[in-house]
């Protein structure tokens, strides 16, 4: 039986833990101080206490990394305690940089690509979340499934987690990133809910963001298609939740946030290929100004 560890108990990490709850070799990976704090204050998931199995030293077969992008580099020393050369690493971070960064650190480990779609927010020790909409994982290319991907998928299937292993996971990662560049930043800038972003004027602006990211992706041979972009637009058309995005929660708390992983990164990639992305520039600069003014 695979030992599975969740590293990073934010909204996503806790949601994954909750949906795997009952799996005998499931652990939350924390240092002793965090274990003491979490055990004292408890963690609530949709209003109910979530009983968590912590460890500060066990080596895992699979580590699902769920920290924020701005926490990743500083958390490597803590992560090292749970990893040996056989550990599989599955990052579930927003953006497109976590896989390559983790692979640069753990050169001899199998580092998978991971994407998760979920509406989840955490404030203090309380998480409010939907069921996982889609958890996507795999190697960069998955035309033939190999162990242990099959074993991991069976575990997710057994716990009724909606999951897929797509042929081209980098393409799927970029698709989710495209969505996040738009909805996370627009939500944070205006304090919009998901439902607000399905309004016609907001959608029009949002769709320009998507189209520009698609144009950048073509220059990097990512494999995104117009069908992928149309799928994102259809998704927005069906938004009806009163929740806000995780970036909006971070903005409202006044803490660190992930705008550099969204707006700043797409501007860098566009600039490297001399591609004009006026809507993305406008959105990032407005959001960055708001971020600076609140600090």
Keywords:
295 residues, alpha/beta, Rossmann fold, N-(1-d-carboxylethyl)-l-norvaline Dehydrogenase, domain 2, 12 helices, 15% strand
Describe the structure.
This protein is α/β, with parallel strands linked by helices. The protein folds into two domains: 4-167, Rossmann fold (3-Layer(aba) Sandwich); 170-294, Orthogonal Bundle (N-(1-d-carboxylethyl)-l-norvaline Dehydrogenase, domain 2), CATH 1.10.1040. 47% of the residues lie in helices and 15% in strands. A hairpin with a 2-residue loop joins strand 3 (44-45) and strand 4. Helix 7 runs antiparallel to helix 8 (200-219), helix 7 (169-190) packs across helix 11 (259-272) and helix 11 packs antiparallel against helix 12 (278-294).
Layout of helices and strands, plus pairs?
Blueprint: E1 4-7, H1 11-20, E2 26-29, H2 32-41, E3 44-45, E4 48-49, E5 54-55, E6 62-65, H3 69-72, H4 76-80, E7 88-91, H5 98-105, E8 110-111, E9 113-117, E10 120-123, E11 126-129, E12 134-138, H6 149-158, E13 163-164, H7 169-190, H8 200-219, H9 226-237, H10 246-253, H11 259-272, H12 278-294
Parallel strand pairs: 1-2, 1-6, 2-5, 3-11, 6-7, 7-8, 12-13
Antiparallel strand pairs: 3-4, 9-12, 10-11
Helix pairs in contact: 7-8, 7-10, 7-11, 7-12, 8-9, 11-12
Summarize the structure.
This protein has 12 helices and 13 strands. By secondary structure, it is an alpha/beta fold. α8 packs antiparallel against α9.
Strand content: 5-15%
CATH architecture of the largest domain: 3-Layer(aba) Sandwich
CATH class of the largest domain reads Alpha Beta
Per DSSP E runs of 2 or more residues, the count of β-strands stands at: 13
């Amino acid at each position: 039986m695979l030992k599975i560890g969740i590293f990073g108990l934010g909204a996503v990490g806790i949601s994954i833990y909750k949906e795997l709850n009952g799996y005998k070799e499931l652990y939350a990976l924390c240092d002793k101080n965090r274990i003491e704090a979490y055990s004292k204050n408890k963690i609530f998931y949709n209003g109910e206490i979530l009983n968590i199995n912590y460890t500060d030293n066990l080596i895992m077969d699979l580590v699902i990394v769920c920290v924020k992008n701005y926490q990743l580099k500083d958390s490597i020393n803590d992560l090292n305690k749970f990893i040996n050369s056989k550990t599989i690493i599955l990052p579930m971070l927003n953006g497109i940089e976590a896989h390559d960064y983790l692979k640069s650190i753990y050169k001899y480990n199998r580092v998978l690509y991971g994407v998760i779609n979920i509406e989840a927010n955490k404030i203090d020790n309380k998480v409010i979340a939907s069921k996982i909409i889609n958890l996507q994982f795999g190697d960069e290319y998955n035309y033939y499934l190999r162990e242990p991907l099959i074993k991991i998928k069976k575990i997710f299937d057994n716990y009724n987690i909606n999951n897929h292993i797509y042929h081209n996971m980098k393409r799927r990662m970029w698709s989710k990133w495209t969505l996040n560049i738009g909805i996370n930043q627009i939500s944070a800038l205006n304090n919009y809910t998901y439902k607000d972003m399905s309004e016609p004027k907001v959608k029009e602006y949002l769709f320009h963001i998507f189209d520009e990211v698609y144009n950048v992706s073509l220059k990097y041979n990512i494999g995104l298609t117009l069908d992928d972009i149309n799928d994102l637009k259809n998704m927005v058309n069906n938004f009806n939740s009163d929740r806000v995005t995780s970036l909006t929660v971070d903005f409202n708390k006044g803490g660190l946030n992930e705008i550099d992983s969204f707006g700043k990164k797409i501007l860098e990639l566009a600039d490297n290929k001399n591609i004009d992305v006026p809507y993305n520039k406008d959105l990032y600069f407005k959001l960055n100004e708001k971020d600076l003014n609140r600090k």
